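re: that complex we talked abt at group meeting.

here r the seqs, copy pasted straight from the sheet so there may be weird spacing, ignore it
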Amino acid sequence: MPEGYLPIFIFLPVAVAFPIVLLLVFRWLRPSVPGGAKLEAYECGIKAASNARGRYTVRFYLIAILFVIFDVETIFLFPWAVRYKMLGWFGFAEISVFLAILVVGYIWAYKKGALEWV
Amino acid sequence: MLDTMFFYMFALLAVAGAILTITMRSAVHCAISLIASLAGVAGLYLLQKAEFLFAVQLVLYIGGIMVLFLFVIMLVNLDSAAKERQFHRRWAGGAVAAVLAGASALWLLSKGAPSFGSPVAQAAPSPDGNVEQLADLLFRQYLVPFELASLLLLVAIVGSVLMAKKRTS
Amino acid sequence: METVISHPLFVPLLLALCIIAFAPLAVAGTVLLERKVLADIQVRLGPMRVGPHGVLQTIADAIKMLLKEDIIPDDSNKGMFKFAPVISFFTAAICLTVVPFSERLRVADTNVGLLVVSAMSAVGILGIILGGWSSNSHYSLLGSLRSAAQLVSYEVALGLALISGVMAAGSLSMVEIVRQQQARGIWFVFDNYGLMILPFVIYFISSVAETNRAPFDLPEAESELVAGYHTEYSGFRWGIYMLAEYLNMFVVGSVAITLFLGGWLRPFPNVAWLEIPMNYGVPVLFFGLSGLWCLPASRKLPSAIHKAGLVFIGLCLILVAAVFAIPVANAALSAPFWFFFKLATFLYVLIWMRGTFPRYRYDQLMDIGWKRMIPLGLAAILLNALVGILRT
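got the structure back, here u go
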């Protein structure tokens, strides 16, 4: 493993355990009287009309998939950003072409109204 | 010693997660198992000193693609889909696929067998970090694939927008 | 003992324990600050009862939360419901481990520290999604969908702003980024003839949206969604989400400070004659004056215990000021002082924004994210690249 990561992996179980241990310790101190209306899902005081799991608008899906695409793009930019001074104008031209192709897609999606929420 | 321990931990996570992904019934549980498996693979990348790949695996696969999966699972009610005829009943097709996959894996392993015993060729230690080396390779040697990736992303934009727009309009 | 202290893992592990122990306390302090500042903006007093000027209010709240019943709805997916807040918490806490509070005061220094932060905040979205989904309530599910869509929308802009910063530093290691600013004698926000202000502003706006803070606090728009993704959570399980949210504020603040605002460096790091006034004058005056203010202010308080408490706090602050006047202590403490001073200012600005701006509508939020921030972020990258290459 490259140096510097060991503390993170030691920290990880501690960070996971911290909230769990607090919850477990205070289990003996806090009341637990389950039952009745408080175990129902909140629906402004009435009984829930339906199960919450249903069909929701496809826009959320569009947002998520566009996010994945643009996230891949930003990830590709990171190595260039670290080295852009050494890569010089050649690298700049490369990244311009790369971004130009994507900007075409972005403008097309914009024109199609894919970025519109309503 | 420590690395070996971490290797077995990550490998176990990756394999157990993968097995649970295909055996769990609830789609959300499958997705969570897949997340665990991907996290294990990210850890294996880290052990190979591929730090950039480790971070990318977490950012893109867990933070991007798995979020997309979970979104889709949340957007449609899959409980009804789970009641329908399951794919795993098709034993014959499954068996053929498993044998074929196993055979190809074995063939590849036997082809590469001589390299298992030999000492690993160490890359010359470089003053540059992992990301810097990657940048030099990506932007000097693999220029065309890099630009093609952009085209691929363009196709992905067009495809996803068309697919989602067809449903709404 | 000597070998234990000189072990390379000693400082990181000690600090890791400190982060786990003090982060909740820092969150308590921030919540108190938030309530007091908001009260001040709205011309009221805020909490005044528990401790002098209510300084112990959030501690009391935390104890109350720990002792409250932990309600797990019948229809929820129990295991997932219980574990989801923990995901939010540990991802936020791990981000803090790669932040350098000073040259030596850090848990981990990795070559890709900045990406570790991005990765962990990306994984943190899962906590919100799974928490909302497993509650099996309309409000929770809609809240988590909205919240996750908001987070992913602004993550793109956030990434683009980070790239501009990385270009200035030429490294992804958090320590190296600050060292570069030290070597060049400039905070990166003022680099490239002031052009770096653009990515900084993009980063700031996106980070406000990433932390679900006003004016982007739609996931918790109580008028339409009750409480968003944590509607069904109660007691300390809700408290964990709250802790994670405030830890995320610390994280985005720390990244902004490290990448754009000079990390642990004092203002004007290359002006030598400012060394004494900046490293000695500011902390001594800051702690000393606030300590001195406590002494006369204590007389106005009603009860004797509160009076004594405020005097005690004042004396403690004066003691801290005195410690900063000792050269040996100052050498070690001035760097973290500047880091936390900047962090506190950042948090203050976030609270100030919450007290000032009304909430955006959801379509406005998406418009800003996708139609303004992303093109601006790309433009900032190309502009900074052009200027950066021309300068070399």
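couple things i noticed - The mean pLDDT of chain C is 86. DSSP finds 14 helices and no strands in chain C.
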